[in-house]
Recover the amino acids of this structure.
């Protein structure tokens, strides 16, 4: 169990603060420290059915967004991954602009292409996979027409 795994209650609190900063300012403290672009991901809770928000690192593509469930190398897959798999409709807020999207997990060669894009942008992805001993869940978020 990593330090991050033991610190889950603290991480939940910091997630709320990071979400508030990103919604209001378009950036968060963590994004400044790590020089990472971030998005607020609004999903529906798979069990509760209530709205949930998470801060995620994002790669902005010409036709959507790319995100991964790295969780800084924690063993557990982030809760938002489970929620997104259950309900792939999501709102993504990047730099204070919200977009309704449909999420999908790429497979096969497309997954490897997406992973390569993530590694190019954030080399620590490889470290996170090794540390967590699991492949990172990767999602492509495609804007829904009319948003």
């Amino acid at each position: 169990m990593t330090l991050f795994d033991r610190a889950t209650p603290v991480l939940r609190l910091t997630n709320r603060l990071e979400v508030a900063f990103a919604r209001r300012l378009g950036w968060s403290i963590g994004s400044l420290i790590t020089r990472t672009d971030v998005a607020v991901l609004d999903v529906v809770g798979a069990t509760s059915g209530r709205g949930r928000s998470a801060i995620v690192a994002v790669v902005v593509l010409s036709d959507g967004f790319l995100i991964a469930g790295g969780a800084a190398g924690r063993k557990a897959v982030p809760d938002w991954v489970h929620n997104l798999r259950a309900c792939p409709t999501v709102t993504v807020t990047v730099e204070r602009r919200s977009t309704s999207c449909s999420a999908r997990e790429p497979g096969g060669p497309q997954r490897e292409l997406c992973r390569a894009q993530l590694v190019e942008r954030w080399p620590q992805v490889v470290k996170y996979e090794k540390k967590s001993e699991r492949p990172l869940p990767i999602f492509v978020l495609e804007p829904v027409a009319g948003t």
Notes: The chain has one domain: 3-142. The CA atoms of residues 4 and 74 lie 6 Å apart. Helices lie at 3-6, 8-25, 29-34, 79-86, 108-121, 124-132. The chain is about 40% helix and 30% strand.
